Amino acid sequence: xxxxxxxxxxxxxxxxxxxxxxxxxxxIQETLASASTLSxxxxxxxxxxxxxxxxxxxxxxxxxxxxxxxxTYVSTLRRFLKxxxxxxxxxxxxxxxxxxxxxxxxxxxxESPH
Length: 114
Fold this sequence. Notes:
The structure is a single chain. Helix content is about 55%, strand content about 5%. The chain is mainly α. The chain has a domain at about 1-35.
């Protein structure tokens, strides 16, 4: 009989389960903070290309191609990140270091993306 990881976790005390969950979340946040490619974001969120493809309604090969592109539509990038439970926000920074949010790129799910 094979032991499932969830069975092992279920046998731990609630405090130990909470500690493991907190450490796992911390590791995800650290990995996300250092991610610089779409595939790194996907991996940090623990998703496969096939899972992202299903959510986006495309095939796995299309996800692979998207991850390798150096240029993509903002709407495509937004959809990809949304499939990872991430939100794309855009801003510009002027030469003095002042950050200016681009509100038309901060649309909610109910509004049409750009």
